[in-house]
Amino acid sequence: MERKVEVSVIMPAYNASRYIKEAIESVYRQNVEWELIIINDASTDDTEKVIQDFLQDERIQYIKNEQNMGVAKSRNLGIARARGEYIAFLDSDDRWTENKLQRQLEVMHQKQAVLCSTARALMNQEGILTGKVIGVSDTIDYKSLLYSNCISMSSAMVRREVALEFPMQQDHLHEDYILWLQILKKYKVAYGINEPMLEYRISEQSKSGNKLQSAAMTFGVYRYIGLNLFQCIYYFAAYAINGVRKHYL
What we know:
By secondary structure, the protein is α/β, with parallel strands linked by helices. The protein is built from 9 helices and 10 strands. Helices cover 39% and strands 24% of the residues. Strands 1, 2, 3, 4, 5, 6, 7, 8, 9 and 10 form a 10-stranded mixed sheet that branches. α2 (47-51) links the parallel β2 (34-40) and β3. α8 (211-224) packs antiparallel against α9. The radius of gyration is 17 Å and the shape is globular.
């Protein structure tokens, strides 16, 4: 009899050997019926060697891209293979606190939600928490999300059929922000748990780590989803103000 899977965890990995063991171990701290789908996006380091022992676990699926496809297409591959009713995303350099998935499942069931996120605690590249926590509202709608992307990729849980409905795209922009906006435009509301159950690693090499690049990509998201120039400028100004408040105040 096939094992029931409640949550499929999607983990793209590119040259992730330094941190991926921590990320995987945080999945093992979850007390729900999970499967982990690791997508090795043509890494050139020893990522595969680091995770080799974990691959003996029947709960872990492993996909190896022959060429680098980017995180959006890699996540789409994982979602297509997923068996769980819900999808959770975890980047290979982040980690979760204990029972994060259970808490989110409780909210998803109670609210009949399609999307749920949590607050996040920031940590440095060595994995030491900085003491800074970025919160999330109890409810998030399309308009409020335009002002600020408060849904961190590694904090999100979404119903699988909804993830399949909106394949991730536009790797050169914030592909996760596009996804959340598309979901909320149709399904109206997401729910937040304002507890830092995601520990998010700050990296200057990431998209969000380079502030100027991140700002340009955010403006590109607004254009991509069809906002006119005036709306883009308006929401971008709000994004900039909220960014200062979020990270520096």
